[in-house]
């Protein structure tokens, strides 16, 4: 698992920067009905997407929350006075506080299915009746674009996806939320090259391949043998799902 305090300085540049952030923000905003006034962005990271929520929708008050102090500090620089340091499993807000809640690239990081269930439950709790919850799902699958890199990495050990769309939908239903649609958006600038994938492997990106182990070293060697070491392969296409809290 990546250390997101250590990742904060390079996070935006290594993940598509503003183009990717713009695509993510527009995907989420597309689900928010007119009259939405208060949005909570859970696991806001550096705030690069969170800031766009506020900038791209007039009259929208945005609050961000993140667990990693270094990430939250960067978000606070973009949204002064609007970022809270907290665990997404225990949101420090009263029930029904927000018109909309988003969690972009969060659920796949949860340690267990129960953690995902708890996070979804907290998002539902702080959502007002009639409000909308929007989240990304199936993140790992989005990165499988059929490239030669994917072919190399396909034989690595896998763990079940905590953010599988069907699972997330079942957790949402269990907390009283009903489906409200879905969308996809391109992760601009996130197409992997072999050299970048080796660097990600060395940093612990692939949770089932601990850095420095013989298995990880074997995958690194196979990646290093691929052609066009610095040519990005196709960008991932991410999936979002929206849920509504009945009135």
CATH homology superfamily name: Vaccinia Virus protein VP39
Query: If classified by CATH, what would the architecture be?
Result: 3-Layer(aba) Sandwich
Oligomer: single chain
Order of H and E elements: HHEHEHEEHEHHHEHHE
CATH topology, anyone? Rossmann fold
Number of strands: 7
Strand order of the largest sheet: 3-2-1-4-5-7-6
Helices and strands in order, then pairings?
Blueprint: H1 4-14, H2 17-29, E1 38-42, H3 50-56, E2 61-66, H4 69-78, E3 83-85, E4 98-103, H5 113-125, E5 127-137, H6 139-142, H7 148-153, H8 165-174, E6 178-186, H9 194-202, H10 214-224, E7 237-244
Parallel strand pairs: 1-2, 1-4, 2-3, 4-5
Antiparallel strand pairs: 5-7, 6-7
Question: Would you kindly provide a written description of the structure presented here, covering whatever features stand out?
Answer:
This protein has a seven-stranded mixed β-sheet with strand order 3-2-1-4-5-7-6. The protein is globular and about 55 Å long. The chain is of the alpha/beta class. The model has no long low-confidence stretch (mean pLDDT 92). It has one domain (4-143, 161-191, 235-244): Vaccinia Virus protein VP39 (Rossmann fold, 3-Layer(aba) Sandwich). α4 links the parallel β2 (61-66) and β3. The chain contains ten helices and seven strands.
